[in-house]
Amino acid sequence: AVLDGFAAPVVGEGEAHENDSYVEQLVLNAQAAVAELRRRGVSDDRLAVGGHSYGAFMTANLLARTELFRCGIARNGAYNRTLTPFGFQAEERSFWEAAQTYAAMSPFFHADKIKAPLLLIHALDDPNPGTFPMQSERMFQAIKGLGGTARLCLLPAEGHFYRARESIMHMLAEQDAWLDAHMRRKG
């Protein structure tokens, strides 16, 4: 089963900034989605999570904060928000105005909690200032250095979105092999 187009709203009430409770809201959204999948008969051993760009950021956060998924796939993500110090997505505060929020939201700072295998795919020519390839390279090094399971796949001559047939086929082959290796039914 594939849950595609999963919407995980993160909101702020009153004077509160939505990102100040981002992690808590993200986890609650994922728990609700997984509960619905279970209700529909999807087995826990068949749950993986993945995303591109902000979805990759969410994927890494979910692996660092929950044990809901067997593995993850994150493409062209940002994992250390202190490297985007003047805001990102809906975050308009600078790092110096909201340092605790930036650190709390950054899965890089919680890489020691990532126990599920994570495939990181990143385009080498990503022009997005928040998702330079260094983000995936450092996340990979953190997970591996901490004894976790990760793979880093770098796609040459690609931007934030992959266009070349060879790159798309490479990405799909990497994802297929990753899911086969980490989602295969035992016995």
Keywords:
Rossmann fold, alpha/beta, single chain, 187 residues, four-stranded parallel sheet
Q: How are the SSEs placed, and which strands pair?
A:
Elements: H1 22-39, E1 48-52, H2 54-65, E2 71-75, H3 99-105, E3 118-123, H4 134-145, E4 150-155, H5 165-183
Helix pairs in contact: 1-2
**CATH class categorisation:** Alpha Beta
Percentage of helical residues? 25-40%
Low-confidence stretches: none
Whole-number total of structural domains = 1
Q: Which CATH architecture?
A: 3-Layer(aba) Sandwich
Structural class: alpha/beta
* CATH fold label: Rossmann fold
User: What strand line-up does the widest sheet have?
Assistant: 1-2-3-4
- What's the helix-strand series? HEHEHEHEH
Q: Please state roughly what percent of the residues sit in beta strands, choosing from under 5%, 5-15%, 15-25%, 25-35%, 35-45% or over 45%.
A: 5-15%
The dominant shape is: globular
Radius of gyration: 16 Å
The CATH H-level superfamily is Alpha/Beta hydrolase fold, catalytic domain
Number of helices: 5
What's the N-to-C terminus distance?
Answer: 20 Å
Largest sheet, in brief, is: 4 strands, parallel
Overall mean pLDDT:
94
**Strand segment count:** 4
Quick recap:
The protein is of the alpha/beta class. The chain has helices at residues 22-39, 54-65, 99-105, 134-145, 165-183, and strands spanning 48-52, 71-75, 118-123, 150-155.
Question: What does this entry look like structurally?
Answer:
- The protein has about 190 residues and is an alpha/beta fold.
- It has one domain: Alpha/Beta hydrolase fold, catalytic domain (Rossmann fold), CATH 3.40.50.
- The protein contains 5 helices and 4 strands.
- The protein has a 4-stranded parallel sheet with strand order 1-2-3-4, sandwiched between helices.
- Helix 3 (about 100-105) links the parallel strand 2 and strand 3.
- Helix 1 crosses helix 2 (about 55-65).
- The chain is globular, with a radius of gyration of 16 Å.
